[in-house]
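Lecture 7 notes: from sequence to structure.
We start with the chain below.
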Amino acid sequence: MFLHERTRINLCRLLFVGLCLAPTLAALAAALWLRQPAHRRAVEQDIALALGVDVSTSRVSYPLPGVMRLVGLELSDPRTRRVVASANRVDAQRADSGWLVALDKLELHSDVAASLTEWVEDALRRPPTGAVRLVASEAIWRLDDHPAGDEPVALLRLQAGFDAAADGASQAYLTFALADQVGADSVRARVLERRDPLAPRYDVQFHTGEARVPCRWLAPLGVEVEWLGHDATFRGSMFASQLGGEWQTQLFGRLTQVDLQAVMASCSPHVLTGLAEIEIPRPDPARGVSSLVLRGRRIERASATVIAGPGLVGRSLLNAARSLQLPSTGSPIAVEEQAPQAYDQLAFDVALGARGVQLRGRSTTNGAIMIDDKGVLIGQSRGRQPIGQLVEMLTPATRSVMPGTSEAQRLARHLPLPAADERMVTRPADTRPTTQR
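Predicted structure tokens for the same chain:
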């Protein structure tokens, strides 16, 4: 049966509108919408909701099917309004397991380290929505506004993301190489969040391989490092677990450029200057060797080798060394009337735990702990000493005495303790110590 001519014309018009004109107009409308500021703001709001930060971008486009491109992306801390990260271009592509995000000319700013911990915790708490992987061939960490005025740090082969671990825990990871340490291993960090109430809530792992990183980079991982000095570096591994709301941390490796003046300023009025290297061994229970183990901010046990010098040492510290039964040079002159004297080398092994502290000298002169150009300043240790003796050595002499126990420490935190008396008691002088081979 043949249709009437007018019917055929109307049908052709309808097909043209439905199959050609309407899709074309819809595509044009969509293209116009994607170029509107309203769409860009909607994308910014979606990213801000996902990351928990303020987001701004100059342009949003779709160069390939399934690929969203952001130009001029900036992430800002919602509290301080300071930019913490920016990228010249970001290409986000949906993959089978999640999102793949490629960043071009990524810049990390000073405040990113302070915000990183909260970002990771928030991301791990959210229900899993698929993996997110970020890659950048090069990145710059700008520390221009740091109080120390650091130079920017160049990072290579940066990868970061969120996904599920083999045991079902949520994990965040970060790997990168340092541009100024060619051939060194990549630095790796991983944070796991476990929902099993019987397991640690968070596990943190940090490995530098053969690379050396500034110790202050450990601060976002919960390790207090300010007392090591601004230029101190770390090479090694760190493991931390949250147990009952308290962090337990194990660390081993090598610390270099440790500023002894900063170390002493954090805990003692004595004078001791110079740069030190501290070797913390890998734990070996069979040999009774322990790494550095912290529970919260308290050292539970530690083994280390300290090599330092040359530098200056105050007479008060030489006098106070006798608190640990260390033979040392002394002086009958009041401490405040004596200038610090030079030393050539400070070298010793230290083992510290609940049973006490033991020092073993490693200097080339009769195994002493500290020497100068004339001989021994602090001689060999006479065995293990109580922790209270170490506290007495590092703090000024006082008439009040407090037991060196964990119970006394917990009680002291709630009491108004007096400030340290800077007028130290000078003990009777000894002759220059002698040690036996």
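Points to note: Confidence is low (pLDDT under 50) at residues 422-437. The chain is about 20% helix and 35% strand.
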